[in-house]
Design goal:
About 35% of the residues lie in helices and about 20% in strands. The longest helix has 21 residues.
């Protein structure tokens, strides 16, 4: 079997499919593994993305999981390693982006790598080292209200330097505009100055395509998913429709949403306004029902069962920032998040046992918990719905031997009509 050429480590499940989607668009056959596999995959792929749930773990745990993924990918023959994080650079003051990147560098024996979350297709651009979400700086985009990883600084050089032991520099837009040779020359200059990681400006896909040749042969690349659009060409691959082919879709349809991002909140409201059935799950309600001996999961599945035959339905805990903060003040941020994740994951599994075979999951933490509850070990990556969000195909014991189509949507991705659009594409 031909070995993979690119081995990828993603710090959450939606980010992993986001990366895989861009690689597939470039002509790579991609498999996404859920967690570090215990043995070699039994299918052929040009790239394998190991999806971890390490974004919000303690730093030492995130490093340990990432190094375990690296060892597995190296054993499969990966020629280059790609550490993928969110296009909004989600992290805490301590990490985990910087510490994981430096641990991977040490394990690979390399003294330099780049960092850029730029993804212009989803309006994430980096200019003079500052990250913009649309026309707003990161810290004015709504990400400052993220319940787990609030981002209050758009200066990525400063953010990354705060997480790293090594010196962080910048490859600015003027260098990038000159192309691969100029970028490589600037990298050599930065290395001579002791810089170990360099944030790279990118305000368009053209910038990412100019960057890609400069990354050929670099042992480690760290980035959001945007850089991936140019990497397949480094391995002699070109776009092909066969790379994204999936089996035909069957079965009933549902959405499970736990993201509280502005984009997902708009998508939830658009779905409700379309007249489709939707049920809100509130953390305080879950806590109260548990205290009274009730079962929110059973209640939700009883509500869903007679409705599934009529078309897609939505179960959501998405809420505005003020409401999320009020819940966190009562239950604690960690406890509230864990309660919602566990409940939504149990609901997702229950929906699949009821016959759902087309499942949209919204939110990184939600997607990770649901995929684990469904005992999914790997995903085959299919066609793109919106930039960064593809349909996937997997096997789950909850599906009674049938295949399951699902999409793992990052909270900030997708148009307002994403939920309806996703099912329409499969139809």
């Amino acid at each position: 079997m031909k070995p993979m050429v690119l081995g990828c480590i993603a710090d959450d499940f939606t980010g992993a499919t986001d990366l895989a989607n861009n690689l597939v668009r470039g002509g790579m056959r991609v498999v996404q593994a859920i967690g570090v596999p215990a043995q070699p995959l039994d299918t052929q792929a040009d790239a394998v993305v190991v999806a971890l749930k390490s974004r919000t773990l303690p730093v030492h745990d995130a490093i340990a999981q990432s190094l375990a993924a690296l060892r597995w990918l190296q054993a499969q023959g990966a020629q280059q390693i790609y550490f993928k994080y969110c296009s909004t650079f989600d992290s805490t003051t301590q990490g985990n982006i910087g510490p994981v990147a430096e641990a991977l560098m040490a394990a690979l024996g390399t003294d330099f790598t780049i960092a850029t979350p730029a993804f212009p297709d989803n309006h994430r651009t980096v200019f003079k080292g500052h990250l913009f979400v649309g026309d707003a700086l990161l810290n004015e985009s709504g990400m400052q209200n993220h319940p787990l990883t609030p981002m209050n600084d758009a200066n990525l050089v400063r953010v990354l330097q705060g997480q790293c032991a090594g010196q962080v520099g910048l490859i600015d837009y003027r260098v990038v505009a000159q192309g691969g040779a100029a970028i490589q020359a600037h990298i050599a200059q930065l290395r001579s100055q002791g810089v170990r990681l360099a944030v790279v400006d990118a305000i368009s896909n053209d910038d990412l395509m100019r960057l890609a040749p400069a990354l050929r042969g670099m042992p480690l690349v760290t980035a959001g998913s945007g850089v991936a659009i140019g990497l397949p060409g480094n391995f002699g691959l070109a776009p092909s429709s066969t790379a994204s082919a999936l089996p035909p879709a069957v079965g009933q349809q549902a959405v499970v949403s736990g993201s509280c991002s502005l984009a997902t909140n708009r998508q939830v409201q658009a779905f409700i306004q379309s007249g489709r059935p939707a049920l809100a799950i509130d953390p305080l309600q879950i806590s109260a029902r548990q205290a009274a001996g009730g079962d929110v999961v059973a209640d939700t599945l009883a509500w869903a069962q007679p409705l599934l035959a009529q078309g897609p339905l939505l179960v959501y805990s998405s809420a505005e920032a003020k409401a999320v903060k009020a819940v966190q003040e009562q239950l604690g941020a960690g406890a509230a998040g864990a309660l919602v994740e566990h409940t939504l994951a149990s609901i997702a599994r229950g929906l699949v046992t009821l016959g759902v075979r087309q499942l949209v999951l919204a939110g990184g933490e939600t997607s990770g918990a649901c995929v684990q509850a469904l005992n999914i070990s790997q995903l085959r990556i299919g066609p793109q719905i919106d930039p960064g969000v593809p349909w996937c195909h997997a096997q789950s014991d909850a599906a009674a031997g049938a295949g399951l189509h699902l999409t793992l949507k990052s909270g900030n991705f997708g148009t307002d009509d994403f939920f309806s659009k996703a099912f329409g594409q499969l139809a």
